[in-house]
């Protein structure tokens, strides 16, 4: 399917909806009630209401029991008025969502003390009032009650009249979705203006699974739900980092290479790793692990998206985010659920008159170079002298030439040359985001239009990621029986990588080098070092200025254009049955261009014969097309004391990816950047293409049941069929079951301290198919270099396995929820156990087959741990709110079983560990009984004070100065013992402050900085300051590092394994909402200003250089929200 056809479908959908909208116009529709009751129980009235209007009513029994009988005569009465009259006088508030009436205990925002009851001698009077929203607009339908009895209702202009009231008598004003207000009648005051504040919906009261909305107090699964507002208070730029603060088991793995690069994608684990790492290269090291096999599934408004889409989301449009973690919560997603599921819902347009909302944000990102501790010019030259670089005997060079070289460098130092190279490629980057949202409509037709523009410049000069997007959202509601909604969104993202290259190049540059000549021109070659081998053969090593590349016309751009259309329908079949369907289409077109000037440093050493190979241009495109459809039947019913929430349905998803790329070389000069100027392809190279198609079909059924809101049961079954599976394993069954007990709802439980106590346990089977679609099939690659008389040749590219199946994860979760002092203190500890079977591994094959290995399901990993979530509301009243929270997680990981091929991989790692490039790097190994995060190195006792040499401990316990790879063993585990977050929220009237910290304790880290920048540091380039201050120099020196003159390779050693304890001030949020009287003078309805700071402080037990290729950053965001 091509793009033009897809856009035609979208256009047709939009036209059809506009025709429907024009047909029905904006005629308002209001649900009315006709009903008469005389002293009937409230539960009977609500049951009759459900049958008359086909709404569902959710509420716990403790809210409804012991309420006075209802007497009412209603004829074509508005639903909101009817509910006001039967619920509000009985201290029950409610809200309506998705044809469901949710009952809650009534909360009061402000209560003015009621004066003593007046005597009969005071004169009765008639008063007038007007009810307004905070933004000053009238609020129609608000109920006015005296002594709990509704005596008036605000009209369309928000006005009401009370007659025969006495001074001192109190009256209350209530409205669904708003906090009630109670006032006292004042003598001789005949006019009142009441402003009602909108009640913030408690998103924690329900769990949105993507297929169901379930009351949390009847749910046994493990799910963390946060509102978009809460997440924006933590980090307004990165949704995933904000989620990590609220749930530490959702872990963004540190990427010390990419740092804060706005174009980099994160790796994520949820409750530990359930798959073996993958990455670039046959031998894995921790800095080249690039696989995303542990990535959770992301569901956006009902359809699956990738992590890039989540990172590019405008956080101001997010309504809620729910993280589903255990089997009961995720089994409904089957083969996509082994690593958890994140369900994201965006804001829907609200009805009413046209409302215009504008948000602005200015983001300031500052490079964090605090972890770099390099030598200055004087120190660096002294280190070179002590290391023997100017010693003719050690360097096998004439002493006179080395002396001359030394004094040339010393002249630069004495001349004041002390270049701070780290500051050259970085900047303080200022980005901005603008968002405009228009919404409104009637109960029949609602509309929303949003436009967004965002710039995200990186702290490396020239790097950025900019986004332009817009969307249309229409919904049509036919008598609350049939509802259609269509959302069209177009997003354009353009990014640039920095022309300044890798940040690591600048960290190596000597401070006594000049950047430019006397005329201000950037110098390309700044130095030449002569190296002479023991054989007497010498070579020149040229030091090139990395800034020179930035003066050229090289560029690297990337981006995509995305068109997304989401059409859904909702049909009320009566009797609690609802039929829902959704079809989503997403077309994403990626492009990338990478031009390297022929004058770039990488071509400096090309010989004359290779002149016509200088310069390169790589072009890349990837077209993605996703269809995602589901249809489901929901049944929400209460029968006596039995509550049922059941969904059954099916979904289908297709993915098509078409990748194309080529690299051309040989450009005549720096200005000719067009691909047309290339001489041709590189030798033995040609354009490449790759087409990937996969399909997933699933059927599911999930039941949430509660008896008297005391005994709870959740059960889910699902079957998936995927084209990724082998032909002998096309269908994958998944299941889960959970049970719970609301002890606090038992009649015998009456504890003045504990108001909520829920026990729950779940278990189930989920899966993962995060691997290439064609691993189960034998595939071929055409060899364009091999042409025969019969045509082009082909070779087998992948040896297929028809038995290949999904990875299976058995999840077990046990926990309880406890609320103390009317939920002022909340405690939720959980224990979980996850065992993943049938890990995807390589099976060794005889070399005679032409293959080293093929894919098979062999290997098991287990994770087990404890999570604890706590909340404390210390102060809560009209003016003040003070609350605290702490979330902790402990996880252990173990490889239970591996294949023979992984044993072969470990043998290859032992061989690779002896090569010069990898001798000092702890390579990944996989051994049964050990953690995936285990650190492997040779045990060491440290440096011998007598000679400055390292002492190793061999397997037999003897000591040796000789490093032997056969001695390598587990010397540490990178997984922390405990990690978590804690913080607090402080509110005083219109001012709010939120502070969050993150911490980890008990883990270990291999300090690669000490190896690369101290032990194995080349003295010809700049290094960490510890190389000068802490290296061994003379017998008797007790030091951590070997001799300063020892230029030999330092091998991987336990000496560099260090405790990894970390505390960061992750987020500080400050906001102030201006008073309405001041805002009204600006012709606005509301105005809020805010400030968010991220990554302000960092305290670590390990000193390492962070951000090797791209530095990390601290950020400050200034926000403004205004509405007309």
UniProtKB/TrEMBL annotation:
Subcellular location field: Cell outer membrane
Keyword list, A-Z: Cell outer membrane, Membrane, TonB box, Transmembrane, Transmembrane beta strand, Transport
Domain TonB-dependent receptor-like beta-barrel stretches: 607-926
Keyword Cytoplasm appears in the UniProt entry: no
Cellular component aspect of the GO annotation: cell outer membrane
Membrane topology: Multi-pass membrane protein
Region described as Disordered: 107-126
Domain (TonB-dependent receptor plug) ranges: 221-341
Broad class of where this protein is predominantly found: membrane
UniProt similarity note: Belongs to the TonB-dependent receptor family.
Stated name of the protein: SusC/RagA family TonB-linked outer membrane protein
